[in-house]
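Slides due. Your pick:
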Amino acid sequence: LNRGALAETARLLEPILERSPWLAQRVAAARPFADLHDLAARIETEIGALSGEDRLRLLRAHPELAPTAPTQMTQASQDEQARLSLGQPPTALRAELAALNQRYRDRHGFPFIIALHAAADLETVLVRFRESLERDTAAETTRALGEVVSVARARLARHARDVAQSVPAGDA
């Protein structure tokens, strides 16, 4: 990440930052990173410094829960939603989520975002989803950006584990 060309570093960061190559570019430009914790902190700093327009751009890049075309989500989002069976939910749940997704988007202007890795179960997600419909948009934007940071941190940690597992023991 620190030694590659800027474009290559940004490309490596894109899977961490949901459909936001422009943000990956900004984060990559902040190199060097001391370690993954430093990189995660830089991502959080960059997200926190976004203008109102860019905050919406980032939030709108995320998928809804249980979208009608789940294969159009990034692989990371597909995997995260699949953990709670949101890729192919039962018909009644799909209808409930579609209604919640529409109400949320109408109220706040971006999709409901939750760090699914931190949600114990689907009921927890649904409770938080319903609660979010009661918040004002400013509070909900702040909450959603925090969820984006949590997702990015979890994806970084998962990527680091995957890389560590792929390196032969003698090469580490």
Q: What stands out?
A: The chain is about 60% helix and 0% strand. The radius of gyration is 17 Å.
